[in-house]
Automatic annotation (TrEMBL):
It comes from Microbulbifer okhotskensis. One of its GO terms (cellular component) is periplasmic space. InterPro entries: PDZ, PDZ_6, PDZ_sf, Pept_S1C_Do, Peptidase_S1_PA, Peptidase_S1C. It catalyses: Acts on substrates that are at least partially unfolded. The cleavage site P1 residue is normally between a pair of hydrophobic residues, such as Val-|-Val. This is Probable periplasmic serine endoprotease DegP-like. Its EC number is 3.4.21.107. It is found in: Periplasm. The active site is at H101, D131, S207. One of its GO terms (biological process) is proteolysis. Substrate binds at H101, D131, G205, N206, S207. Might be efficient in the degradation of transiently denatured and unfolded proteins which accumulate in the periplasm following stress conditions.
Amino acid sequence: MVKRCTQYLLVICLLVSGAASARGLPELTELIKENSPAVVKINTVDRNRSNRSNSQPQFQQEIPDIFRHLIEPRRRQQRPVASMGSGFIISDDGYIVTNNHVVDGADQVTVTLTDRREYQAEVIGKDVRSDLALLKIEAEDLSAVRWGNSEDLQVGEWVVAIGSPFGLDYSASAGIVSAMGRSIPNESRENYVPFIQTDVAINPGNSGGPLFNLDGEVVGINSQIYTRSGGSIGLSFAIPASLAQDVIAQLRDKGRVDRGWLGVGIRNVDRDMAKAMGLGKPSGALIEQVSPGSPAAQAGIIPGDIIMRFNGQNIGVHGDLPHVVGQIRPGTEASVELMRKGKPERLGVTVGALPGSGEERGQASAYPSSAIGGRLGVVVEEIPEVMKQRWSLETGVLVTQVIPGKPGAKAGLRSGDIIAQLGFEEVGDMSDYKTVVKDLPEDELLPIRFFRAGQSTFRTIRIES
């Protein structure tokens, strides 16, 4: 009798366990089978990267001229650098989406389909700020993905990634959405992507691959991982499909991306600031500085204001503001709800165009280099008094924008740095800066001194002809 009861109990437990499993673990085989043909493997070749990586200014300076002839031949003999990533087909006539960092600087881009067909791809357009690129191959009747609405995603929802981690073709992994709207600044300290965080196993080679919901729709593009080992530790980040679709549409139509711009420096609101401003809890974006002549300045926004809502969207933390503003088309009239001296205010602002937005077809800049960033490829302004007092500075100019690929970026400058010396000339203010930059010689290594968080740093910079 006891044995029979035990058997019944075991059967019941198995049935309950099976029911729980059916409720909690989705069936993914059909989803993966249906969508794998639209996922591609991308291989790139950069014939110049090895030479660039071995011709850094510091490296050259440390080698006496008499010994350089021993090094040069080795540099010329180095092989081209190859890299790999993933992508996915968005139309049956051969348009493909991937990450910008997968194809950036590549001389040759090869796309491999699931049936092993290979095509040379044309780079239609790239966008550094969203880390997206649009490719085109000459093929027809291809399998294409379906876009989903990433704004409907919820934390805890199941998602699936398909890609080529470590070059292993068409590998699938699954997990859940861990968080939404993650702010992760890029190398230029810009923050225009509200990333989807997941615990899906993403590794090198997955970059540019699709993230699917359980309806088989692309809700994100896998872009980054947080790791200390180089492999997955359960923190991966994807670009939301809602943002990606807008970027891709602009790249397809005009080869560049135009973004909204306010022209403010911001920080988070802490508990003490929230209390002082009459807020129930820390929220919003505190304005630390306003660029002269910017859309924010023209709208009457001043340092000390706390933006609570922009164009009808809540600003929970300061990182939300560039996400919202960046997706608004330049020239759009937007409403700003803010706290000023403890009282609510409502203003109207005409959103401007972010300087240096996007790249033209054929990888050319969308704006003349002389108009955006000048010879150094950096946008500067006078140092606000609050920064002078904080870091005990009297001279210099503040870097507010660094254009990728330009001399300033190659020298390691970032937004927020304060340039104090160029070449052998001191930079006291904007007038000095313009005069010094105008007279800098080309194709020579020059010293540059700047302050970062109050610490003086020396680097070298080269103005290319």
